Amino acid sequence: MTTRPAAAGARPTAWQADGLCAQTDPELFHPEKGGTTAYAKRVCLACEVRIECLEYALANGELHGVWGGMGPDQRKAIRRARDRRRSA
What we know:
88 residues, globular
């Protein structure tokens, strides 16, 4: 069983052990440039800790890979939307 690494300087959290990614090849969640994230996102859709994973990635500024079923561009859009709501 492998687990996804925590962000640099961050401590692993309890939910990470429950993630389906802990039972899956980590390379799936960090594909080579031009590779597909579709398989990783499909794994995430079935994961019970998807929301915790996504919130972790947003809170820790994860810039690469699939977290909580979303890629970097999707997470960036969420961060921007949240920032706009806070500024409004």
